[in-house]
Design a protein that fits this description.
The chain is α+β, with helices and mostly antiparallel strands. The protein has a domain of 117 residues. Helix content is 35%, strand content 22%. Strands 1, 2, 3, 4, 5, 11 and 12 form a 7-stranded mixed β-sheet that branches. Strand 18, helix 12 and strand 19 form a beta-alpha-beta unit. It comes from Rhodoplanes azumiensis.
Length: 454
Amino acid sequence: MSPSSSRAPASRPSAPRPSAPRSSAPAPRGSAPRTPNGRACGLDFGTSNSTLGLATAGAPVLLALDHGSTTVPSAVFFGLDHAHHTLIGRDAIAAYVDGVQGRFMRSLKSILGTALIDEKTQLARRRVAFRDIVRTYVEALKQRAEAQCGAPLDRVVHGRPVHFVDGDDAADRQAEATLADIARAAGFSEVSFQYEPVAAAFDYERAVAAETVALVADIGGGTSDFSVVRLGPQRRDRDDRKGDILASGGTRLGGTDYDRALSLAAVMPALGFRSLMNRGDVEVPSGPYFDLSTWATVNRLYDKAVLPELKLVRREARAPQLLGRLIHLIEMRRGHSVLIEVERGKIALSDAAATTIPLDWVEPGLAVPATRTQFDDATAPLAERLRTTVTATIATAGLTPGKIEAVFFTGGGSLVPSVRAAVRAVLPEAAVVDGDRFGAVGLGLTIEAQRRYG
């Protein structure tokens, strides 16, 4: 059976234990009722980017839904002009960077499994539930895809991480149920799920020439997920793959955590992080810096109580000019701009030993240096979590590391050298295969949609 499926609002089956081999196997063909006039699709709703694919006669295809690109940034912008326009993807980012008045949100997936999903936020003169904001994004993807393929899409295989929430089965089940409800509210009548690393394995399998036992490492924006799978040309057309999925494991750690670590290590000190107050050796409050370094919490800084409190701190700070930069940034509502530059810096450090992160829009000429060594040191605890999770997943499969023949990397986070090194430390002899970093999961979900729905 699949991780879970949801066919009606009243039906919310629980997700099985992710560590059990059976939990990641697909449903047999014909297990879901057919809808005469609609098509099925695979939807990878990611923390940083999303894709949507359709099965064709030749192969699964990801639709180009955002200015000719198959990846759509998981971002929404609510304009505050008279039309109150709503934008998603690259248009949302462009509106924010261009200074259009409005509210920008990114990393929407990260609120699943948290209390925030049931809260409301202020948009102009109305309060909107966060789950409705996620629905707005998913609905827009669906409408764009339908316009492009010329047919309604009413069945979807949705990707999901192995764990939405670490160590909390109830919250994990609720997160999946919430995402199923959102998908139905967006117009899908049939909603089922597949673990994202298992989906990536099915995409990888199309190029496998001989039977292979592989570890799929899907390092996304919000989670890192792993599956041990048995793949091969003689297996790929089977309806029932439950015996081939040996184990799945994961942790709520991804590219946005690496962004936060780099931000706190390199950028936030230039805005006063860990600077001291006048009296004693007390540091300035750290809360605003953690909010500013986390995609999902940046908007907390725009609460009306934040600026008055920071201005009081500035009066008592030994380096008031640094607090002044932070205050100015918040007054401009440019918190997400910091993370956009940090993300670019992270990507640059994947290939270079050092880079510079520009902040000249905060203060003319302001820029901060960042080095690979600094980044690796700041993310060392994250690398250890990855090693632990990989080791545990292989053990759950009943194998030793030497039995893993290949490591298949996918997800934007797999570009980070220390991430790859953490996985390779457990599997030094396995062959390394790089897939479509931003498309493998979506393509695999599309393969699964064809298997399940025809």
